[in-house]
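FORM 7B - TANDEM STRUCTURE REPORT

SECTION 1: FIRST PROTEIN
SEQUENCE AND TOKENS:
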Amino acid sequence: MRLRVAVPVKDEEVLLPFFPRHYASFCDSIVAWDNGSRDRTTELAAAHPLVELRLVQSDGHDQLAVLAAMEGTRRESVGRFDWCL
């Protein structure tokens, strides 16, 4: 079974060393949608081999833009992954 997880991130430098390590234990792909981080979030996410970092262009508070981007990830996962979390 192939699993993909899509997650919104913003200023998650403290959690990013742990999040990919946990999900990599059972997921085949991690898509991290960054919405304007100002810390090392993008650098840490991009450094993990299973994480595909994508950027959401918004004012930094637009949750609808993030949700729309994540829905796009779900749609593109159909046929490639059994589940998209």
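SECTION 2: SECOND PROTEIN
SEQUENCE AND TOKENS:
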Amino acid sequence: MPAEATAYTRRILCTEDDADTREVLRLLLEMDGFQVTCAATPSDALGFAKAEKFDLYLLDNWLQEIPGDLLCRKLREFDPSTPILFYSGAAGEADKARAMACGAQGYLVKPAKLEELTAEIRRLILTA
């Protein structure tokens, strides 16, 4: 059990359309003490987010159905407060600016080190 784990396990909804990346993220975040629900599509993500409470949404910017910034806007329509962190290969300043304008609180470019990702997740959850 990670040193920072508490009696309350923080819940993350991870939306990633690449199956390998999705599984690696799930495993690594669970090893770090988070409970992770994965969504392969924005439709799945919206369904999970409407049905359950999460402490953080982790989004990719490049998704099959709709772009991540549009998913972010759709999440904000019914959940204005849960932190949103983009973790994406889209490294342009315009990509980051669009994500932040849609209501995200953070943006990390893949591949970030696991420690950087988990530190940003913890920062966002603790300041929410």
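SECTION 3: OBSERVATIONS ON SECOND PROTEIN
The CA atoms of residues 1 and 121 lie 17 Å apart.
Helices lie at 19-31, 42-51, 68-78, 93-101, 114-127.

SECTION 4: SIGNATURE
Preparer initials: ____
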